[in-house]
Amino acid sequence: MNYLSVVAAIGLVVGVVVYSSIPLLAAPYVVVSALTISLYLSAIAGVLDYGEFAIRAIGCVVLVASMPTAFLRAHKKQRTDFRLSFLMVPVFLIVFFTPKDSKLLNHDEFSFWGPSLKIIHETSRLWGSQSPIELKHYLPGQQLVQNFFLDSAQFDERSVLAIQIGLLSAGLLAVVGILTTGLFAGALGMATTLIAPFFFGFAFRSIYVDLLLSTSFAVSLATLMRRETGRTSHGLLVMSVTFGALLKHSGMILGLLAVFVYFVRQFDENRQRTDSWWPSRTTVLSTVTPSVAAIAPYLTWATYCSLVSMKPSTELGLFDGITNGTSQERLTLTLNAFNKEMKAPSLPSAMVLDRIPLDLPQVSYVVVIALLVVATQLVVQPRLDNQRKKSKALAIGMTVSVIGYLTFLIFSYLFVFGEYEGIRVASWADTYRRSYWHGQLFS
Questions:
Q1: Reduced to 3 DSSP states, what percent helix, strand and coil does the chain have, rounded to the nearest 5?
Q2: Quick check: pTM over 0.70?
Q3: What is the pLDDT of residues 332-344, one digit of tens each?
Q4: pLDDT of residue 356
Q5: Does the chain have fewer CB atoms within 10 Å around its N or its C terminus?
Q6: 347: which strand partners?
């Protein structure tokens, strides 16, 4: 573990708490997001070493400069959420007790997530077209921030896992900090956030990106449920969608779905003020920044990959069959497989509950969507001080986002994935479905 990086990160967290109105528990997540963005820009520019050095220097300077103010404000109780800092204790305990024999042995950990991180760690640069790893076209956000906290002299798999748990915890704390203010509600929320991933089949003892991606989506949605809708909420949304988009390509879609919900909420607020069904200029412009933030990582990474001759390992699905006459068969097989998955038992069979020896009801994905509509109306509305009109707009936006996500998946299986993955709707249950549901329901 690179303790100088840890100190620098703490300094940045203290700086965010002292010099902004961001909720205390959300500060670590904001710092993780900012670190990832800065490291990514440094890496694609070929100056990752200099970027890391600059971040460590800035973090240490901010720590020294902001600590006196932090102690003064804590003493005068100028921030009411300082007492919530006790909720960080479980995170430190989980990281401290990370098993010493932890190894990256799961399939994608062994073939990509671990080796790609090791390449960055050993070369201080991104992998290239000749690097001996699969999935070279995957975005490098997670590996870059992991490498920042790793000891430069040693690649330790236990430290990698501990760092990953820390990144996940930053997101979980952010959701709690954004949605709660009292100590009791915060403690209850923290307990829920630590337990919830297991019910979706996730595990903390893994460096798969899916749980981190799902958590960033949850932070984006939680931001939209804040009572305050000013610059702080807007900034949190921008940071969150950018961070998610740097983790995986599907992060861009999840980010855009969150932006859509944000647009619906802003549009409804403007309609109530002006009684006009046309979106105001402010509403449109406020949506532009998070939209660009969600798309920019994908575009810049695609440009970088083309410059260094790295091409996606997947083929362009249905397009491949147009010339040889197999497109109709591919289309039929894929849609039939997708339809089968939609009607198959989905909840709780996709979660850890199916391991409990109880006679639990099995419901299809279609039923889950219907239940989500009802749950969103019941849960979202009370969170917004019973502002019924505002909460209805948010509930509608979140419900429509489900349809948008399913549309994206169908498109991907038809046009992005190769035939083998497409006709089998690969990773539907263990990746795409649970990543979305954890983020949606958890927020």
A1: 75, 0, 25
A2: yes
A3: 888 787 777 766 6
A4: 46
A5: N
A6: 363
